[in-house]
Amino acid sequence: MQEDKQVIVDGLTFVPYLSREEIALQVKRVAQEIAHDYAGKQPHFLCVLTGAFVFAADLIRETGINDAQISFIRYKSYDGTSSTGSVKQIIGLNDDIEGKDVIIIEDIVDTGLTACRMIDDLKQKNPASVKFATLLYKPDSTQTGFIPDYKAFSIPPKFIIGYGLDLDGKARNIPDIYVIKD
Ligand code: IMP
Ligand code: MG
């Protein structure tokens, strides 16, 4: 990745932060941790749309767990570059997860409000266990104290895009991760 490469989305400037190579390395590490912890089990992956679709596709393939199932749910809390503080469920879960070992796959944990809300919703459906895997974790932004079980990167509380993450629905296709310029 060229260090001087910038991208402009909706008039905001972003600079390179994590390259696709660095991302691939950490995704592989998290996948190996999951494969180790779930040896002999059939986890049910739950990809949180929209942002986690790129991470989930790479992570699940890297685990090599071929009898795992995957479902999708959708929540929304961000508007522009900040959290609205209210979490909306946009697409709920139709698949049965009763008695299953669920692994939620999320793009980023910021305030932790979305994560806590999802876990509360899922526990109503009586899974055997629920764990949480996130690509990115902003520990300094927490409003909930939520700590993910698996994380690829801990990052400072700055707005980022790429590798599935968006600015108002844009820039999800960028293969590397970019951070907003100070
Ligand atoms: P939380 O509920 O505040 O933890 O926010 C989680 C959700 O906010 C994520 O699933 C993302 O959709 C979105 N989000 C948080 N931080 C960022 C960011 O830096 N870039 C893009 N989306 C973000
Ligand atoms: Mg999200």
Protein described:
The protein is of the alpha/beta class and 182 residues long. Helix content is 22%, strand content 36%. The chain is built from three helices and ten strands; from the N terminus they run E-E-H-E-H-E-E-E-H-E-E-E-E. The strands form two sheets. Strands 5-4-3-6-7-8 form a six-stranded mixed β-sheet, with helices on both faces. A four-stranded antiparallel β-sheet has the order 1-2-10-9. Strand 1 and strand 2 (12-18) form a beta hairpin. Helix 1 crosses helix 2. The longest helix has 18 residues, at 20-37. The chain is globular and about 45 Å long. The structure holds inosinic acid and magnesium ion.
Strand order of the largest sheet: 5-4-3-6-7-8
Q: How far is the N terminus from the C terminus?
A: 20 Å
Number of DSSP E strands:
10
Low-confidence blocks of residues: none
Given helix and strand content, the structural type is alpha/beta
Total helix count?
A: 3
- Which sequence of SSEs, written as H and E, runs from N to C? EEHEHEEEHEEEE
The residue fraction in helices comes out at 10-25%
Bound molecules: inosinic acid, magnesium ion
Beta-strand content bin:
35-45%
